[in-house]
Amino acid sequence: MISFLTAGESHGQLLLGVIEGIPAGLELASNDINIDLSRRQIGYGRGGRMRIEKDLAEITCGVRWGKTMGGPIGLLIRNKDWVNWSDSMSPDSSLSGCIPPETRPRPGHADLCGIIKYSHDDIRNVLERASARETAMRVAIGAVAKRFLAVFSIEVLSHVTEIGGEKAKLLNRQLDSIIQDAERSEFRCGDKKAGARMRKKIDEAKKKGDSVGGIFEIIATNVPVGLGSYSQWDRRFNAKLSYAVMSIQAIKGVEIGIGFEAARRFGSEVHDAIYYDKVRRRFYRKTNRAGGIEGGITNGENIIIRAAMKPIATLYSPLDSVDIKTKKPFKASVERSDICAVPAASVVGEAMIAVEIANAFIEKFGGDSMTEIKRNYEGYLEYIKEI
């Protein structure tokens, strides 16, 4: 089973990650990770931080001569901005108080509830860890999971479908075409005309000192039948995927398949009829309104999951707030921030979904080495053909 931990602060020295449960024998190099880290940093509407950082992962342990050894894998991403914060974020007590405390919480952030929960008197102790900077390490860890899934021809892809209310029109488009266009777009959107409208919306928000959110879609292809279970509430795969995506900062809603639209239709317009291909010896559906999951179990169709991201909470025209010490009203503090981070969030979403699929895959076809898992998986595929 795969588990992971991240550590580090937004303006700290570095981000750390440990991923456990990756079997021995998986070919893995830093470049496999850095490709996705660079994808996370692109996108129209990103802030100044992305001009400072150039995220590169270092594999510090768990890999020898290009292959995993079966133990925990350690990852490290250095923060280039640390040079400007080495005293302010130092663990050395002699530097305590070298900058004044931050006392004005920002609406929409963890600032206020965080200082109450952890008994802090400086909001920086909250915002440094609550920051979405943490997702850089999640993307790195997700890239390891993607590398594992690629061995079994499973891909996890994403594209942006909406920013600031401007929606992409993608009907009757093949998935390959949508993803190709999305990867070339600074909005990660497969509809160029929608991208132009998104640009105007982001520019409008920037001019007003505001921010915009949006919706992105994640698609996992070639996922086998049988991941997850209906036997217990916490083993249902749709629940695991939803939990993973909702854990991403600023995500406020998740739907699988046609999601909320299913509540508005007749049953005959929601459920996917079942067919059998005698040549390929497999069951299949002509539609995929279920989003690849029925009864908490993958059904062999593409997994489709969408996430709604709220606008970034840090505004350059800040909302009203109250100083936690003086209790006087103020305009909330302003940290360097993005106007729109939906394209980046879609890459983080890929990472979280990849981890969950890899975890379920190892649970189903468990083994300590890639050789053992491949053997188990190939036997399962033969079994399916005999049904």
Structure, explained:
This protein has ten helices and 17 strands. The chain has 387 residues and is an alpha+beta fold. The chain has a five-stranded antiparallel beta sheet with strand order 8-7-9-15-10. Strands 1-2-6-3 form a four-stranded antiparallel beta sheet. A hairpin with a 6-residue loop joins strand 1 (3-7) and strand 2. Helix 1 (30-41) packs across helix 5 (135-150), helix 1 runs antiparallel to helix 9 and helix 3 (111-118) packs across helix 4.
Distance between the termini: 28 Å
As residue ranges, the low-confidence spans are none
Number of domain modules: 1
CATH superfamily: Chorismate synthase AroC
Strand arrangement across the biggest beta sheet: 8-7-9-15-10
The overall pLDDT, averaged over residues, is: 95
**Alpha carbon gyration radius:** 22 Å
Note the main attributes of this structure.
alpha+beta; Chorismate synthase, AroC fold; 10 helices; 17 strands; 32% helix; 20% strand
List the helices and strands and how they pair.
Layout (H helix, E strand, L loop, with lengths): L2 E5 L6 E7 L9 H12 L7 H4 L4 E5 L1 E2 L2 E2 L4 E6 L32 H8 L5 H7 L4 H16 L4 E9 L2 E2 L7 H10 L7 H17 L5 E8 L15 H10 L4 E6 L17 E4 L4 E4 L7 E2 L2 E2 L4 E7 L10 E3 L6 E3 L10 H23 L5 H16 L2
Antiparallel strand pairs: 1-2, 2-6, 3-6, 4-5, 7-8, 7-9, 9-15, 10-15, 11-12, 13-14, 16-17
Helix pairs in contact: 1-5, 1-9, 3-4, 5-9, 8-9
